[in-house]
Specification:
325 residues; alpha+beta; Glutamine Phosphoribosylpyrophosphate, subunit 1, domain 1; 9 helices; globular
Length: 325
């Protein structure tokens, strides 16, 4: 084979292997550095979480950096017993055990995550400690719990009477089907861009209600539930973690934005990738939100019912996301 043909075949093969064939029809601008937002902080979170967004937005208005703002913001939902999918009050697994997953990622590209943690409410803060105080990225199970006690976190039983009652009712039938938008909230993913143009994000959840014992979803998996790249933007996910992991959804959105796509178009393309693997109308929900470093935002989901909340001029505003169905 002639040398020129060999290289041209190789280039087709490599781009096909990487799954970026589609991108070749789009702007190729991997090295572009978007103009940075300097005028105002931006905070955006999955679902209707006004208090959490208000908290992070106001902190950044006071000059608090994005990482601290995002961890304090999601902590509002972790402490909210009425939120049945995050922190204390969350639904347990099939055996009645509440286990939490969370991660954080900052403007430097550093990250930390905890998985399947019992008895600790503020798992996003614990993930921050993993990032800052250990040589690791992921800590799971009893190791993460012991680390939390070493860091001074209190031991707090996470199964509330209300959650136990729901679980006992579920046990009657023990049917396991992912539910779509039943409570108008799910995993809290939050992205913050502070006044210095620094991005950080966090994702925190109890995962699927009545999941198998030991199951971990996308939320603490860097690249799936959350990805932050301060040169480009950030994205986070909610919904059925298994579907998000299979597309490495948040990383994909950030890479599409790096390639010149808007946050909205990048979210839409990533949902399209998920659907292209399934065929037909799936019986599960996935939603993404994203921002770029210029402060533009995007959101998209498979089904109607997903919403996101953002901070503007001292107020938290909740808006429905566009969706495929
Ligand atoms: N997105 C949350 C989960 O699947 O665990």
């Amino acid at each position: 084979m002639k040398r020129r043909n060999f290289f041209s075949k190789m280039s087709v093969g490599v781009s096909g292997f990487l799954g970026i064939g589609l991108l070749q029809a789009r702007p190729q601008n991997w090295n572009a550095k978007p103009k940075r937002l300097t005028n105002s902080p931006l905070s955006i979170g999955t679902w209707n979480c006004p208090e959490a967004i208000q908290t992070s937005g106001q902190l950044m208005d006071q000059g608090i950096p994005a990482l601290e703002a995002v961890v304090k913001g999601v902590a509002v939902e972790e402490a909210n017993e009425d939120n049945t999918t995050v922190g204390i009050g969350a639904s347990p697994d099939r055996s009645g055990l509440v286990t939490l997953d969370a991660c954080v990622m900052d403007a430097k590209g550093d990250c930390g995550a905890v998985m399947a943690v019992e008895n600790i409410v503020h798992v996003a803060r614990l993930a921050q400690h993993v990032m800052e105080d250990t040589p690791h990225v992921n800590l799971a199970g009893v190791g993460a719990e012991e680390f939390a006690y070493n860091k001074g976190f209190p031991k707090t039983p996470l199964l509330t009477p209300a959650a136990e009652k729901r679980w006992k009712a579920w046990l009657q039938k023990s049917e396991f089907t992912p539910e779509i938008n039943v409570e108008n909230h799910d995993t809290i993913g939050m992205l913050c861009l502070d006044a210095r143009g620094k991005l950080s994000g966090s994702c925190t959840t109890s995962g699927l209600a009545y999941k198998m014992k030991g199951r971990v979803g996308d939320s603490p998996i860097i690249g799936s539930g959350l990805f932050v790249d301060n040169e480009v933007g950030a994205a986070t996910a909610t919904g059925l973690g298994e579907a998000v992991i299979k597309t490495v959804g948040s990383f994909l959105i950030v890479e599409l934005m790096r390639n010149g796509w808007s946050p909205q178009k990048a979210c839409e393309e990533t949902i399209r990738r998920i659907l292209s693997k399934k065929g037909g109308k799936p019986d599960f929900q996935v939603g993404f939100i994203a921002i770029n470093i210029e402060g533009e935002k995007g959101a998209y989901s498979i089904h109607k019912g997903f919403s996101y909340t953002y901070y503007k001029s001292g107020k938290a505003i909740n808006v429905p996301s566009a969706s495929v169905y």
